[in-house]
């Protein structure tokens, strides 16, 4: 808070503005237009700011119970705008078209309905453009397409509830802070009727201010500054323009909405002044991003659209956390830092841009666990699960400050640490994070002592019951569909530990710590022997999902063992048995492999982790199939996922989709609240490309091996431009002739040795 801040039980004075509780100032309401059905949505994002509207660009003040509760403008896990509703003479416009194709901007074209006897339908053209760039900008162009002049009212209704994102998702609070109203200091004494008047909003007013004080005392504001043409009058938080347009005349309205917390910008991104500047800034930053990444193209336009969308979404999902930028997990629910999600996405995109991995490693290392804290499930050396910045976190109502309840982020961090070095030979980062790697391995070893396996059991009453990638409450089931009990040791987590020890033993050699190299290698070998005995379900010839708290097999047929295939923990015969079983009809639905067999009593095609299909899950399995030499099977999996993605809006893979079987020409069934864009779904596009071309970097020894590349039948040519391996930048060209794919180095800047192995 600044020196000119005064907070008392009756009022708040902030930067010369005086607020009192909204309960003391009733304001006139502007009626909302009730939607007749749940609305599809548009999503735009810029760094730590995202907006979800209906296809009209509106956030309605009222809707059906199942319509659009997640709409709004969000920053730092807080909803700074819960209503944004455009009306003509109190009526909803008629939508003509809309798109959020650019990712950081949406555009809407609409017109008027018939209004009484004086305004025919389709007389007015309304073009809305909304852009995010540290703030929200909107410009509205209104055109009269009739042969005579017309007069009407156009209104924009605003509101902000400042709820925490967890509340939007359904978290129930016993008590909330209070909404505030801006008042003139001279109005603090009550009028004769006992009502304190708000600050006057009259003709020519330039701004609206909506405010809230949280239980932690933080004051949050949404400041709306009008541009181009000021409103003629206000009714509460609704701005109304009385417009008179001559035949074919056009007028422009606009505003900028800034978000503040304790009188400081809530966003970490500096806000532009105008929409044009915001747009130019976004386009320039995106262009800089495109110049840094590997540019990928093929001879098929639909495939190129999927690639281009994935490149754009990876740019959009980047988010600033202090001095680092990493990939947030997904919009709308998970637009923040996650351990597991950020690590897997960074691993998937090493071919695209290794800098994502570098900043992810550094950022997660900065938050690495330092002490024992049961509420947050923090332990020394542990990598976080999720970071939140909203009021619930600030008030300690949830443990996400950050929360550490994840069993797999720590071994995954170690795997990424080693893989990043293989791609870059970045010795500075290797050295800087070595002590973090040792701390992470110590955490793993401490937790292996009891049973020999890395397991989880919830400690925090505010934490997650399940702490692997399948973290919903109903997904760890045995073959009878019964929930597993006690500490859970997931199969894929043991494979991550195995891979982390194998990879770190090589890093230890680089660090000249031969003692650690030998120890970790020996521990990995012992883990492999025990794993193949304890996790193998003899009568199913398959790997158990997990071991429960008593060491019994959780013996359902799931996708989890597919994550183990590329990591070398299975004996060869067991690996091939798992690979074959995953492709059986009860697992593979035509577009991808289900999370749980359709033969399980617990199977639900609409279940989050008990029958749905996840693109990232499948791309990891595809990498496993490829590592076993099952190239045709891996390409079949790619083709199913590509066919699914090509049928999505904007050719963007969703977080997950329902497990219903492909049957003739039916489309993939959408999961109702899947995040899109979502990080590791987007990353799966690049991981599947890596599966095809099979790049094996060894930047330390200045070598890149390309082993038996294989394009699917749907693609004849593939090009990688600006690919970075170590200090070399190169262009690669792949061409399929019959069943053979050839590769050539088209351009190389640097002395990297490229070995192509057929």
Which class of secondary structure composition applies to the elements?
A: alpha+beta
Rounded radius of gyration (Å): 28 Å
Q: Helical region count?
A: 15
Helix fraction by DSSP (H/I, runs of at least 4): 25-40%
General form = globular
For the secondary structure, the number of strands is 34
- Unreliable segments of 5+ consecutive residues: 64-68, 186-197, 199-204
The amount of beta strand, in percent, is 15-25%
Distance between the termini: 65 Å
Whole-number mean pLDDT: 93
Give a short account of the largest sheet: 12 strands, antiparallel
Protein name: Amylo-alpha-1,6-glucosidase
Domain Mannosylglycerate hydrolase MGH1-like glycoside hydrolase: 341-647
Domain Putative glycogen debranching enzyme N-terminal: 44-256
InterPro entries: 6-hairpin_glycosidase_sf, 6hp_glycosidase-like_sf, GDE_N_bis, MGH1-like_GH
Describe it.
There is one protein chain. This protein has 758 residues and is an alpha+beta fold. Strands 1, 2, 3, 9, 10, 11, 12, 14, 15, 16, 19 and 20 form a twelve-stranded antiparallel beta sheet that branches. It has a four-stranded antiparallel beta sheet with strand order 4-5-6-7, with no helix packed on it. A four-stranded antiparallel beta sheet has the order 8-13-18-17, with no helix packed on it. A hairpin with a 2-residue loop joins strand 32 (728-737) and strand 33. Helix 3 crosses helix 15 and helix 13 (615-627) runs antiparallel to helix 14. 51% of the residues are buried. Residues 64-68, 186-197 and 199-204 have low confidence and may be disordered.
């Amino acid at each position: 808070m600044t020196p000119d801040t005064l907070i008392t039980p009756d009022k708040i004075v902030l930067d010369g503005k005086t607020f009192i509780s909204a309960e003391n100032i009733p304001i006139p309401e502007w009626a909302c237009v009730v939607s007749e059905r749940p609305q599809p949505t548009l999503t735009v994002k810029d760094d730590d700011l995202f907006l979800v509207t209906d296809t009209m660009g509106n956030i309605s003040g009222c809707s059906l119970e199942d319509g659009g509760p997640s709409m709004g403008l969000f920053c730092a896990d807080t909803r700074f705008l819960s209503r944004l509703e455009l009306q003509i003479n109190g009526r909803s416009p008629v939508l003509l078209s809309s798109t959020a194709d650019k990712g950081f901007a949406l555009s809407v074209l609409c017109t008027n309905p018939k209004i009484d006897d004086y305004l025919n339908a389709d007389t007015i053209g309304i073009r809305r453009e909304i852009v995010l760039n540290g703030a929200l900008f909107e410009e509205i162009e209104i055109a009269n397409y009739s042969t005579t002049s017309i007069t009407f009212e156009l209104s924009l209704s605003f509101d902000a509830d400042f709820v925490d994102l967890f509340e939007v998702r359904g978290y129930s609070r016993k008590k909330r802070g209070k909404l505030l109203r801006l008042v003139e200091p001279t109005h603090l004494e009550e009028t004769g009727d006992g009502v304190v008047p708000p600050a006057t909003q009259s003709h020519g007013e330039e701004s609206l201010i909506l405010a809230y004080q949280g239980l932690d005392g933080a004051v949050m504001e949404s400041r709306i500054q009008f541009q181009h043409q000021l409103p003629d009058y206000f009714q509460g938080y609704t701005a109304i323009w009385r417009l008179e347009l001559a035949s074919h005349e056009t007028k422009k309205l606009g505003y900028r909405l800034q978000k503040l917390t304790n009188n400081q910008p809530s966003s970490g991104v500096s806000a532009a002044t105008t929409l044009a500047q915001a747009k130019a800034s976004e386009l320039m930053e995106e262009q800089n991003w495109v110049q840094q990444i590997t540019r990928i193209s093929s001879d098929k336009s639909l495939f190129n659209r999927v690639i281009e969308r994935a490149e754009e979404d990876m740019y959009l999902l980047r988010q600033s956390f202090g001095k680092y930028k990493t990939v947030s997990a997904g919009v709308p629910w998970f637009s923040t830092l996650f351990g597991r999600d950020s690590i897997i996405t960074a691993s998937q995109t090493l071919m695209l841009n290794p800098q994502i991995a570098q900043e992810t490693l550094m950022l997660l290392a900065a938050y690495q666990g330092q002490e024992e804290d049961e509420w947050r499930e923090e332990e020394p050396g542990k990598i976080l699960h999720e970071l939140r910045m909203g009021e619930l976190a600030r008030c300690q109502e949830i443990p996400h400050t950050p929360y550490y309840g994840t069993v797999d982020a720590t071994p995954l961090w170690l795997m990424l640490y080693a893989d990043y070095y293989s791609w870059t030979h970045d010795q500075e980062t290797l050295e800087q994070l070595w002590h973090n790697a040792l701390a992470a391995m110590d955490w793993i070893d401490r937790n292996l002592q009891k049973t020999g396996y890395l397991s989880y059991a919830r400690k925090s009453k505010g934490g997650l019951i399940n702490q692997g990638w399948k973290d919903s409450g109903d997904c760890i089931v045995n073959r009878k569909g019964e929930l597993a009990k006690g500490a859970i040791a997931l199969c894929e987590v043991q494979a991550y530990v195995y891979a982390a020890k194998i990879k770190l033993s090589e890093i230890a050699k680089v660090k000249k710590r031969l003692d650690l190299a030998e120890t970790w290698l020996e521990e990995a070998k012992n883990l492999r022997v025990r794993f193949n005995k304890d996790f193998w379900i003899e009568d199913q010839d398959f790997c158990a999902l997990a071991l429960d708290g008593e060491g019994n097999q959780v013996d359902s047929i799931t996708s989890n063992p597919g994550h183990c295939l590329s990591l070398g923990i299975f004996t060869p015969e067991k690996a091939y048995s798992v690979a074959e079983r995953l492709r059986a009809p009860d697992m593979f639905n035509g577009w991808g492999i289900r999370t749980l067999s359709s033969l399980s009593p617990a199977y639900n095609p609409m279940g989050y982790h008990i029958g749905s299909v996840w693109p990232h899950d499948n791309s990891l399995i595809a990498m496993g199939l490829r590592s076993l030499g099952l190239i045709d099977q891996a390409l079949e999996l790619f083709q199913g996922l590509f066919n699914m993605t090509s049928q999505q809006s904007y050719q963007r893979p969703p977080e997950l989709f329902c497990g219903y079987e492909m049957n003739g020409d039916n489309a993939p069934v959408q999961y109702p609240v899947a995040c899109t864009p979502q990080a590791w779904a987007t990353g799966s596009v690049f991981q599947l490309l890596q599966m095809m071309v099979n790049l094996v970097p060894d930047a330390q020894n200045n070598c890149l091996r390309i082993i038996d590349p294989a394009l699917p039948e749907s693609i004849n040519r593939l090009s990688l431009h600006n690919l970075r391996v170590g200090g070399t930048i190169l262009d690669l060209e792949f061409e399929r002739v019959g069943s053979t794919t050839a590769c050539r180095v088209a351009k190389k800047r640097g002395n990297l040795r490229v070995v192509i192995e057929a």
